[in-house]
Amino acid sequence: MNTLAQPEQQTFPPALNGDASWYEASARQRIDGLLDAGTFTEFLGPGAREISPHLSIFDLPTQFDDGMVVGQGRLNGATVLVAAQEGKFMGGAFGEVHGAKLTGLLRAAAVRRVPVVILFETGGVRLQEANAGELAIAEIMRALIDARLAGAPVVGLIGGRAGCYGGGSLIAGCCSGLAISELGRLSVSGPEVIETNRGIEEFDAADRPLIWRTMGGKHRYLLGAVDAFVDDAIPQFRDAAITLIANFPALNLERLALVQSALAERLARFGDCADAADVWRALGVAAGVDVPDLEPAAFLALVQSLKEDDHDVR
C-alpha cells in the first residue's frame, strides 16, 4: 500500500490544553499535541475509506481509517512520519488495513530516511483477522528494521488505555527508543490471555495492582525495558520523542550484542523473582515502598537515588 499517494490535510477535534492527558486523548488529539501546530498531513485518512474487508463478515462495525492514523508533520521543526493507533476502535487491534498503513509508512521512512514516531495503543491482533493480523505484525517488524538499518530512528510512545500488548509489544521491542507513562502498560501477553492459558493462580486479570506492578510503566522503566519515563501530560511525551530521536542508537551487530547481554544479565538477576516487588528489593528499593503508588516526581527521584547508590538500574 502506497501511503504517500493520497495526502489530505487533517481536521482535528478541539485542541486540548497544555496539560491534557495522553491517556484520555484520542489518536488524533495526541498527534495534534505531539507535532508542531498545523503541520500534520494525513495519508489515507477517513476520506479514502480504506476499511477492513473482514469485519463485516462478523457483523462488526468498521471505521473509515481502520483505527490507524498515519501521516507526516514536523516535530521541533524537523520532518517526521507519525502513526497513531486509536484504542477506542477495537482496542487498537491490528488487522490487514490497520497494519498495512503502518508498514507503508515505515517503508517510506526507509527510502526517505525520515524519523518515525509510533503512538502505540493496542491489545494485539484482531481475532477476526487473525491470519492477516499476524502477517501484518511480521511485515511491520521487517519494515521497521529496514528503516532503522537505513538510518531512520523509530520511536515508540506508550500511554493509552489499551496498553501495548501482543504483536504491538513485539513491534515496540524493535524500536530504537521507547517512552512510557505511569499509566502505560507493556507486555507480550495481556492479563486476560495469561489467566486464560495459565489459570487465575498464575495471574488474576481482575487484580489491577498486580497488573500495574507487573506491566506498568514504572516497573518497565526500572527493568530497562523502556528508555524514558514521563508523566501523563502530552507535552512530556513530545519532549521525550524529541530526545529519543536525537539520541537514537545505530542498529548493528555491536548494538545487538549489548542488548542481548543486558537481557541475559536481567534474566540471571531476576529470573527467580516471583513478583515485581521482589525485583524492586533486588534493585535496592527500600521495603515498604510501593513503586506504582509513587507520584512521578517521587519515582524519578527514587530512580536517581538508586543510580547514586551504584545499584544496577537504568
Q: State the major sheet.
A: 8 strands, mixed
CATH H level, superfamily name of the largest domain = 2-enoyl-CoA Hydratase, Chain A, domain 1
Total strands: the figure is: 10
Order of strands across the biggest sheet? 1-2-3-4-5-6-8-10
Helix and strand content put the structural class at alpha/beta
General description of the model:
With 314 residues, the chain is α/β, with parallel strands linked by helices. It has 2 domains: 7-251, 2-enoyl-CoA Hydratase, Chain A, domain 1, CATH 3.90.226.10; 253-314, no CATH class. Helices cover 40% and strands 14% of the residues. The strands form 2 sheets. The chain has an 8-stranded mixed beta sheet, sandwiched between helices. The protein has a two-stranded parallel ribbon with strand order 7-9. The protein is globular.
